[in-house]
Backbone:
């Protein structure tokens, strides 16, 4: 049974909801039949408004947060992830483990790219930074698109700490992935490496540019000088011909 505080939060969601925006979001996040976000429900909140609600109710228990995390409503799941990030960042070691365990136990609800991208580095990456990274390699082999995206996006935390090896290895594992959303994420993380160590990124590209899906390559090249971008794309085209 919902307590008064949960009902109050849901009233906040209703207050900021917008039916027209919800329809736009459902198209944007591909919620149609056979699309990657099939069946997802949106209320039509703007992200800043969801953040505002999360800031107002940042003292919920893990049990209460879990109720929102497993919601059918996209913005409620985003709200839950924002709260989990906050709980993780301010918590003691035991709290951080509880948040991490809850996160990995409920990956089926972290099921669109915005939910993954906002949370994977801040929770999974941050927790595993000084630990065994095996869970990420298991996720990278998952049949679930979103678990594979969590694997590569979690390494964003490592990149911020100037550690690139796990990003490189997981990007290698995802080279043959059939999903464009994985190509984009892997290319993005390679680009982030390049911002800090262009030579390290280029070593990867020289080795794999022929195998990389074109979307992954384009994302990885975005910060390169234009002429170098054209050179890689031209060589790839020539090598494929």
Residues:
């Amino acid at each position: 049974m919902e307590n008064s505080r949960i009902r109050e939060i849901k009233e906040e969601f209703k207050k900021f909801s917008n039916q027209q925006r919800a329809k736009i979001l459902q198209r944007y996040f591909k919620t149609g039949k056979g699309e990657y976000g099939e069946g997802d429900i949106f209320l039509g909140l703007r992200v800043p408004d969801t953040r505002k609600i999360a800031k107002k109710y940042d003292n919920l228990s893990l049990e209460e947060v879990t109720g929102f995390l497993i919601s059918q409503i996209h913005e409620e799941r985003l709200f839950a992830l924002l709260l989990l990030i906050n709980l993780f960042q301010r918590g003691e070691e035991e709290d951080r483990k509880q948040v991490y365990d809850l996160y990995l136990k409920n990956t089926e609800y972290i099921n669109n790219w915005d939910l993954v991208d906002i949370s994977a580095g801040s929770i999974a990456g941050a927790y595993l930074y000084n630990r065994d990274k095996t869970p990420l390699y298991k996720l990278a082999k998952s049949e679930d698109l979103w678990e594979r995206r969590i694997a590569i996006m979690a390494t964003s935390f490592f990149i911020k700490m100037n550690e690139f090896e796990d990003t490189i290895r997981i990007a290698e594992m995802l080279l043959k992935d059939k999903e464009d959303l994985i190509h984009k994420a892997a290319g993005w993380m390679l680009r982030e490496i390049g911002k800090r160590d262009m030579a390290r990124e280029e070593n990867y590209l020289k080795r794999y540019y022929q195998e990389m899906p074109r979307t992954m390559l384009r994302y990885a090249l975005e910060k390169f000088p234009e002429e170098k971008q054209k050179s890689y794309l031209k060589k790839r085209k020539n090598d494929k011909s």
In short: Residues 74-90 form the longest helix (17 residues). Residues 105 and 160 are 25 Å apart (CA to CA). The radius of gyration is 19 Å. The chain has a mean pLDDT of 95.
